[in-house]
Amino acid sequence: MQVNTSHRKENVEDGRASIYQSVISNTSKEMSCFSDFPMPEDFPNFLHNSKLLEYFRIFARKFDLLKYIQFQTTVLSVRKHPDFSSSGQWEVVTESNGKKQSAVFDAVMVCSGHHILPHIPLDSFPGIEKFKGQYFHSRQYKHPEGFEGKHILVIGLGNSASDIAVELSKKAAQVFISTRHGSWVMSRISKDGYPWDMVLHTRFISMLRNVLSQFKIIRKWMMEQQMNRWFNHADYGLQPQNKHLMKEPVVNDDLPSRILYGAIKVKSRVIELTETSAIFEDGTVEEDIDVIVFATGYTFSFPFLEESLVKVKDNTISLYKYMFPPHLEKSTLACIGFIQPLGSIFPTVELQARWATRVFKGLCTLPSEKTMMADTIKRNEKRIDLFGKSQSQTLQTDYIDYLDELASEIGAKPDLLSLLLKDPKLAVKLYFGPCNSYQYRLTGPGQWKGARSAIITQKKRILKPLKTRALTTSSNFLVSFLLKILGLLAISMAFFFQLQWF
């Protein structure tokens, strides 16, 4: 595990996550900030990666965290201390500037992430050894320079695949995107121009989703209606094969437009490659392919841990609530961030860390190994039912339900019924408004006095970066009201006269 703020280097480094230069966050700033530190109000609602890094730096300085971080340091091994069964301690060996150092720690959090080891299933692409063009994993991609005039095939239809295909289509002669199962695609912009996650991630909508999840036909119909509001996915060749699954949608504002322009063509699964062409499952062939980008996801491993501590099988790990190895005598090891919620990762890992530290300190207790294993098995079965068996979905989970679950463990879940009596305005905001991280600082350990204000004023911070042009607005409520009444009358009359033609 390495900690380094220089994450946008041109060269991709082994053992370290990598991003392309144009990456923009898929979750909005109000839904992605830490629970006691809203992002600056002048920050855009969706952040370029450099802006997100700026927020982390501001946060680290605010809470004086830099002194606790050892930069340019590799963790070589994490082993149980000889008296682990009684102390729960760990021996950690690190290397920095060529020097190894060993230290003993009372607890360890593994936060190395699951987007490091590229997954390129070359065995699934017969003829790849004959292909004369260039091919690489999306992890290697940085920018579109050098791909001018090329015919490019992007394999995969996740967020990275879509971003890269869109960006390359502005330089390349033609881009093809190959997908096995299809995917829903949604815009960052939702109802009334608000960020999508502030509209969809509410407790009310989560409740409806949970109730209707028992009925697959209704769930499938609602999913189709919601996702096809922007455009008909079947017409664009993007409709998912298993439409009832709650697979994470692709967030991309430009993909449908680039398909309309003809700059991107959607293709089915690749079944064979030749020296210069790709043959697809539907029998079609695309010739003169110059470049193949494998946006086929990632695998993950823990080379610094003993294999018996955290086992990875078929890209899955058996962790209690995606965090704790159930079989340890002492609960002093936690995996943070090995999860893919249908929402922002930052509030999720923050709650994970809050719970883990309370477990380490003995303030929260984990159940028996048998209970934890049973919960893990049941959770995995539910995950498969909701999201499917695809490798890309092995860490998928609901968002609000999981946040509430973690918050309940530490006593930070808001009591809506109690709030309805004491503070009805806030209770309504919590239930029908965006479920963001501030809610988990209203009560319990780590309570923050500014949480209520942050919830009430979030709309102001959403609109602030948009108010870059002064507008003259009318305050004449009566005129506005009368215009609405006249509009309704006009619609009613038009409908009435329309009926006369039948």
TrEMBL record:
<keyword id="KW-0503">Monooxygenase</keyword>
<keyword id="KW-0812">Transmembrane</keyword>
<keyword id="KW-0560">Oxidoreductase</keyword>
<dbReference type="Pfam" id="PF00743">
    <property type="entry name" value="FMO-like"/>
</dbReference>
<keyword id="KW-0472">Membrane</keyword>
<keyword id="KW-1133">Transmembrane helix</keyword>
<keyword id="KW-0256">Endoplasmic reticulum</keyword>
<keyword id="KW-0492">Microsome</keyword>
<dbReference type="GO" id="GO:0050660">
    <property type="term" value="F:flavin adenine dinucleotide binding"/>
</dbReference>
<dbReference type="GO" id="GO:0005789">
    <property type="term" value="C:endoplasmic reticulum membrane"/>
</dbReference>
<protein>
    <recommendedName>
        <fullName>Flavin-containing monooxygenase</fullName>
        <ecNumber>1.-.-.-</ecNumber>
    </recommendedName>
</protein>
<dbReference type="GO" id="GO:0050661">
    <property type="term" value="F:NADP binding"/>
</dbReference>
<dbReference type="InterPro" id="IPR036188">
    <property type="entry name" value="FAD/NAD-bd_sf"/>
</dbReference>
<comment type="similarity">
    <text>Belongs to the FMO family.</text>
</comment>
<keyword id="KW-1017">Isopeptide bond</keyword>
<keyword id="KW-0460">Magnesium</keyword>
<dbReference type="InterPro" id="IPR002254">
    <property type="entry name" value="Flavin_mOase_2"/>
</dbReference>
<dbReference type="InterPro" id="IPR020946">
    <property type="entry name" value="Flavin_mOase-like"/>
</dbReference>
<keyword id="KW-0285">Flavoprotein</keyword>
<dbReference type="InterPro" id="IPR050346">
    <property type="entry name" value="FMO-like"/>
</dbReference>
<feature type="transmembrane region" description="Helical">
    <location>
        <begin position="477"/>
        <end position="497"/>
    </location>
</feature>
<keyword id="KW-0274">FAD</keyword>
<keyword id="KW-0521">NADP</keyword>
<keyword id="KW-0832">Ubl conjugation</keyword>
<dbReference type="InterPro" id="IPR000960">
    <property type="entry name" value="Flavin_mOase"/>
</dbReference>
<dbReference type="GO" id="GO:0004499">
    <property type="term" value="F:N,N-dimethylaniline monooxygenase activity"/>
</dbReference>
